[in-house]
Design brief:
This protein is mainly beta. It contains no helices and 6 strands. The protein has 2 domains: 39 residues, no CATH class; 41 residues, no CATH class. The radius of gyration is 23 Å and the shape is rod-shaped.
Length: 91
């Protein structure tokens, strides 16, 4: 019996084995084929504003992947000044 171990890279999730086994072990009694399947994690980016103005994101997508780069451009409305971005855990 051979024990299989699948380790996902950052931003990915292991979703299972398929082929000649769907578990993490296989008894070798012939030529065997096992596929380890990984899916890429998806993340959302929510932009909140305090005061009057808008923020554009580029690229503007519904979801992003680990290590994607998103450029944010803040535009203050008349009479307002943009003072900076804060991440949620900065509060």
């Amino acid at each position: 019996m051979v024990v299989l171990e699948a380790t996902a890279d950052a931003g990915w999730t292991f979703t299972g084995f398929s082929g000649d086994t769907t578990t993490n072990s296989i008894t070798i009694d012939a030529n065997e084929v096992v596929t380890a399947t990984f899916t890429q994690n998806e993340y959302t980016l929510t932009i909140n504003t305090v005061g009057d103005g808008s923020v554009a994101k580029s690229p503007d997508k519904a979801t992003y992947h680990y290590n994607d780069v998103v450029v944010l451009e803040a535009t203050a409305d008349a009479g307002w000044t943009f003072t900076g971005f804060k991440r949620r855990y900065d509060y």
